[in-house]
Amino acid sequence: GQQLNQSPQSMFIQEGEDVSMNCTSSSIFNTWLWYKQDPGEGPVLLIALYKAGELTSNGRLTAQFGITRKDSFLNISASIPSDVGIYFCAGSNTGNQFYFGTGTSLTVIP
Amino acid sequence: GAGVSQTPSNKVTEKGKYVELRCDPISGHTALYWYRQSLGQGPEFLIYFQGTGAADDSGLPNDRFFAVRPEGSVSTLKIQRTERGDSAVYLCASSSSPFSGYTFGSGTRLTVV
To answer: Where are the beta strands (DSSP E) in A50-84?
Structure first.
């Protein structure tokens, strides 16, 4: 199956700092999604990207669809404690089967 | 309902037993998905339903796994002769259209002892 690698694997940051994480694939995708997962819960959709080069924001979150179509990036500005969780990227060419990354675990220190 | 509902939330079973996991999608969502998430990993695709039919079951690991959605709403994932390696969180999701991203349920944590 497709392999999506996320980096960093984990991050420990101070409240108020900005965060950057990325996701790379061995294959191209025409759709990228970013999800956040809290312990004991299912992933929650944050941002969807549909076009190479596209930059989309959702509040303090901004994500970009890489121009090679093999990568995507997520930035979080002015982090707050509730940003804690695991962030997953997911890519698809069919819209129905998404391949998920390995996750980036974010810890925000107050 | 307001969200995707999965029952039970936790299931412990003995190796070799049969289990059923239930998913109640968001009302009106025609697409339903099952994923499996092992500890420390991202979700892995199992099967996708469009209406009552399984449109893509390429992710089912072997013939011990089977899923149905007889009336195009509730779905049941069935696992026969469970093995310890089947232990994982089984996530169900639904969506109103392709590419729009899913709404996931909270999952069923299956432990095979």
So the answer is: 55-58, 61-65, 71-76
A39 touches chain B (CB under 8 A): no
Task: Give the Cα separation of B100 and B67 in Å (integer).
Answer: 23
User: Look-up: residue for tokens 């997962």?
Assistant: A37
pLDDT tens string, chain B, 113 residues long: the values are 589 999 999 999 999 999 999 999 999 899 999 999 999 999 999 999 999 999 999 999 999 999 999 999 999 999 999 999 999 999 999 998 877 778 999 999 999 99
| Element spanning A33, H or E | strand A31-37
Q: Which residue has 């996530």 as its token pair? A: B91
Among candidates B29, B86, B35, which has minimal Cα distance to A92?
Answer: B35
Pair A96, B31: CB distance under 8 Å: yes
A41 close contact with B: CB closer than 8 A: yes
First to last CA, chain A: 39
State the CB neighbour count (10 A cutoff) for residue B65: 18
Q: Decide: A23 and A89 in contact? Cβ < 8 Å.
A: yes
Q: Both tokens of residue B103?
A: 């709404």
Q: How far is CA B74 from CA B71, B92, B106, in A?
A: 7, 11, 15
Contacts of A96 in chain B (CB under 8 A): 31, 33, 48, 50, 55-56, 98
